[in-house]
Amino acid sequence: QVHVVESGGGLVQPGGSLRLSCVASGSISSINAMGWYRQAPGNERELVAVVTGGSSTKYADSVKGRFTISRDNAKNTVYLQMNSLKPEDTAVYYCNADLTTRSGTLWYRGDYWGQGTQVTVSS
C-alpha cells in the first residue's frame, strides 16, 4: 500500500528554524508532484509550497523568502526548510503527494495525504 509520512515538527521560538520531511512509499510508478499544506486552528487547509516532477516550485506569498521546498527523487522524499519562523506559522503541516501508482496492470493517479505534523512557534 502507499504511505505518506511526515516528520520534523515541534516547538520552536520565533525566528527559529525547522526542517520537515515527507517520505512516500509503496507501489509508486512516478511522483508527479509533492507539496506541503498547513491548517491552523479555526482555519481551512492552505497550500504552503509545492514541487513538481520537473522541479519547479511554488510558494504561498506568506512564506516566500523564508521557506524552501526540495525533493530527493531517489528517496521519494520531500523537505520543507522553514526559517525565520513566526507565530502565525503555527499549524499542523500536511504532506500531499500526487502519485501514479499501480496494482497489477492497473495504474492510478491520485493524491495521497500524510497524517500531519504539528509546528508550534511560540516564545
Q: What are the SSEs and their pairings?
A:
Elements lengths: L2 E5 L2 E3 L5 E8 L2 E12 L6 E7 L4 E3 L7 E6 L4 E6 L8 E13 L2 E8 L3 E5 L2
Parallel strand pairs: 2-11
Antiparallel strand pairs: 1-3, 3-8, 4-5, 4-9, 5-6, 7-8, 9-10, 9-11
Structure report:
There is one protein chain. With 123 residues, the chain is mainly β. Helix content is 0%, strand content 62%. It is built from no helices and 11 strands. The chain has strands at 3-7, 10-12, 18-25, 28-39, 46-52, 57-59, 67-72, 77-82, 91-103, 106-113, 117-121. Strands 2, 4, 5, 6, 9, 10 and 11 form a 7-stranded mixed beta sheet that branches. A hairpin with a 2-residue loop joins strand 9 (91-103) and strand 10 (106-113). The radius of gyration is 15 Å and the shape is elongated. The model has no long low-confidence stretch (mean pLDDT 95).
- Strand tally is 11
Gap between N and C termini: 40 Å
Q: Hey, roughly how much beta strand do the residues contain?
A: over 45%
Radius of gyration, in Å, reads 15 Å
Helix-residue proportion: under 10%
Series of secondary-structure elements, N-terminal to C-terminal: EEEEEEEEEEE
- Overall spatial form: elongated
Q: What average pLDDT do the residues reach?
A: 95
The SS-based structural class is mainly beta
Low-confidence stretches: none
Q: Describe the sheet with the most strands.
A: 7 strands, mixed
- Summed up, the helix count is 0
